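Researcher: Next entry in the queue.
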Amino acid sequence: MQSPKKYTNHLINETSPYLLQHAHNPVDWYPWGEEAFAKAKAEDKPVIVSIGYSACHWCHVMEHESFEDEAAAALMNENFVSIKVDMEERPDVDQIYMTFVQLTTGRGGWPMNVFLTPDKLPFFGGTYFPPVNRYNMPSWQQILASIADAWCDKRDDLLNSANDILSEIKRVGKAEFAPSVVSEEILDTAFASFVRSFDAKNGGFGGAPKFPVAMSCEFLLRYWKRTGNENALEIVKHTASKMASGGIYDQLGGGFHRYAVDAIWLVPHFEKMLYDNAQLIQVYLHLFQITKDEFYKRVAVETLEYVKREMLDTTGGFYSTQDADSEGVEGKFFVWTPGKIIELLGEDDARIFNEYYDVTAEGNFEESNILNVKNRGAVLTTPSAEAASTPPQTGGEQESSSDRIERSRRILFAEREKRIKPFRDEKVLTAWNGLMLAAFAEAAAVLRSEEYLEIAKRNADFLLENLFESNGENHPVGETPPPLLKQEGSQDATPRGVLLRTWKDGRAKLNGYIEDHANLADGLIELYQVSGEVRYLLEAKRLADTMITEFWDEENGGFFFTSNDHEELIVRNKDFYDNATPAGNSVAADVLLKLAKLFGEEKYERFAATVLRLVAPQISRHPQGFGRALAAMEFYLAPVKEVVILGEKSNELEHEVFGEFLPNKIVVLSTDAEAAGGSIPLLADKEMIDGKVTAYVCENFVCQRPVTSVEELREQL
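Model: Structure for this entry, 717 residues:
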């Protein structure tokens, strides 16, 4: 029987695993909310807002060093009201105070610790603080004592500083986003910038640390498709190959870690994020479409299989992250020693395996080894998930090195499964699920996988049924949600209420942000194009209409991060920068451009064009902050093919369309054009030819002659 905890604070009723990790700290933590700020006002205390997330290594370090320390907790409890925030749940709060920390210190990151007035105005902040003075940083307890003294003795100075910095935060929030012309010249300038910063030896851009820049790669692939510039394609191929050969890629289990701390993709920060893997799946799928190289397909499949195995809830939702640490040690789950490998494989197979995967006695990471491939040759990189779960076969004299490595992988994977796995944050975030929904939907079409299509549909249905608040309450798993549509083919979906941000253990909460609406809509559009099920498209359209009515800035253009009825914060930001995840504005522009083509409604294109005009001047200055926006610009400026395919699902014409990299297209599949024609204008007056599967290739609703053969369709495309 587990002994009772010594301390329990106000986080105990939260659903966020990150907040629950702090629920038994001696610090009297509160969640973000009016209760905490009311207490601060009543007791005339400043507020500590500490922001992090469950997969953050240094967040765990600071918790252990300071927030579990009774002396530090006593200082916090006596002099402050302390609030813990999960930045993945509350990116609106995180954005505001991250801007403050970056403005005042020149750097940012997590954990982030900010001191506020009871009116939520920040006056001091930083990231990690050590428990004692070191790294040229004051200790956390020294910071606490200094702020407490200043609050008593120099409060006017703090308040003046807070008001001054608020003006600066508001200025930064507005940014220099004055509209300008969207042109191919912007795309050419962006491409030239990527060429200049490209690391021709190691792939990627710039030096250490290196991040898997999926959105930039997607832009470069679209740029190659439009211009035929082979250098754009080579940059992506080289980067993708280097990443998949490095330690940033899990060579046994599939999936990518967050980033590499070096320039050669060897040593990762070991956490795995849903959003990275969602975006990278699509990059490798697209490279497979372009090159037909099985290597890229294998990486995409292994990453999909990793997500299916490790990150998929039984309800259909996708989990958020996996930690870098296991048993309190960063990377322990993933690393190997030569002795352990010899013990498992025997001398001969271990010699081949260790040579291929760069395993040495001295190691490449803290006296252990991160598996990576320095010389791929003709040998496979990683096992498929199917192979990983298959009992190994006994080798014979004629067994090739590649067969022996494949068998060795299976053995090591099975052994690794016995280890204590890194902690998994099992909350379901709408925006990140939208990204993975799009990845599985596209994979279903490119790889002709009914299993991946079913995973995508279950995910979409789960989100639509459980991430909406209706009449003040969401609908937990097991309850009957409102009907999806009044009738199949109707333009009007039954009102669902407010889209929510996060779900865990049957509870959904927190109003969704622009990125939640946009990413879910994008995933639903992708699923519609693959499945032909109109209900998904109509839900995407409804989400887009909500973005326009609830998030659009009527005065200056662009989408606010929060909706009109959101909690009032000290500023109302817009997010235009594509960072680790795409900006809500970038995805919204992409979504609206697709809907404009699908429904023939120019208003959607006008809103999208306004967003792209707003970011155009900034793209010219730092294009690497706008990868998704650049991809949307490619779609906006290119001639878009509207492909309608009539007939039974999974036919050869459909396979032809999805087998090639055709980024500037939208696809309408239908088994009954007449029934769906009322909802989808592109289906109007379309019919099959002689009872055969028939394709129509159109531009701006003007169609070429219908075709029934793959050869004719390929010629029109």
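Model: Confidence is low (pLDDT under 50) at residues 378-397, 471-493.
Researcher: Noted, moving on.
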